[in-house]
Specification:
- The structure is a single chain.
- By secondary structure, the protein is α/β, with parallel strands linked by helices.
- It contains five helices and 16 strands.
- The strands form five sheets. It has a four-stranded mixed sheet with strand order 2-1-15-16, covered by helices on one side. It has a three-stranded mixed sheet with strand order 3-4-5, with helices on one face.
Length: about 260
């Protein structure tokens, strides 16, 4: 069974970190309801949802993907690029320690889990405002003994790499090409988002299903034509905090991170 670690929306979400989007008022109550619907979708797909305690003083704490990178053998605790977010790691580490040995990235490394796309034995890592070259180097050093390779990817125009591309399975990446250098994906099939929906690449694939924000109907049709069963979810308030459907969960199975 897949396990999904999640965390409720913080009551202080309006003080979230932003990199590319203008600040807009977030309806926190509506965001919490949207998060509940998201968790229900995960449970409906058969995942065991483990919800951490709320962190009312940590505005971005709902984005549990960023503090860690999980593979079959180990969990790598990231050193997040935004200093204000680093306290989020403590509770995530306590929960992950129940499932995996932990390793920790060290200063001067910075790395956010939202910059890491896992495809088979390769982890593609975006060089972003939040993830630096030392973070990529240390991640590669931690994972190399387990047979994983790490491939840096140049990104531009967005906060995290998973805003620009996500792995769907079946050797396929959903991508907004203007925001990434596609060269590292030369051996993979690239499925392009609808041109009018540049933010639509952040999709959470679980088996043959794909959770996608409901505001991207054209990209949803592209996924359906390509053979994925899509599950739309309204995350409009969460997207105001530069969040998406991958970053609200940390998903892994017995011996396999995804």
């Amino acid at each position: 069974m897949l396990t999904a670690i999640t965390r409720p929306v913080s009551s202080s979400m309006n003080r979230c970190e932003l990199g590319y989007l203008p600040r807009r008022e977030i309806d926190v109550q509506k965001a919490a309801a949207q998060h509940d619907e998201y968790e229900a979708l995960l449970a409906g797909l058969g995942l065991r949802v483990v919800s951490l305690e709320p962190e009312p003083d940590l505005p971005d704490a709902v984005f549990v993907e960023d503090p860690a990178v999980v593979v079959a053998e180990v969990a790598i605790m990231a050193r997040m690029g935004a200093v204000s977010r680093r306290p989020e790691s403590e509770s995530v580490a306590r929960e992950l320690a129940r499932y995996r040995p932990l390793r920790w990235l060290r200063e001067p490394a910075t790395l956010d889990g939202g910059d890491v796309m896992h495809a088979g034995s390769t982890l593609y890592v975006g060089a972003s405002q939040r993830t630096n070259a030392e973070g990529i180097r240390q991640l590669a050093a931690e994972l190399e003994p387990f047979g994983y390779s790490v491939a840096p990817v140049e990104i531009r125009g967005c906060l995290h790499m998973k805003s620009a591309c996500c792995y769907l399975g079946r050797q396929t990446v959903l991508a907004n090409r203007p925001w990434i250098d596609p060269a590292p994906f030369s051996h993979l099939r690239i499925l392009d988002v609808a041109p009018e929906e540049p933010w639509a690449a952040n999709v959470l694939a679980v088996g043959e299903s794909a959770i996608i924000p409901s505001c991207f109907p054209a990209t949803r049709q592209i996924l359906e034509r390509a053979g994925w069963h899509t599950l739309p979810v309204d995350v409009s308030e969460i997207m105001k905090a530069e969040g998406g459907v991958t970053c609200m969960s940390l998903i892994f199975e017995n011996g396999q991170g995804v």
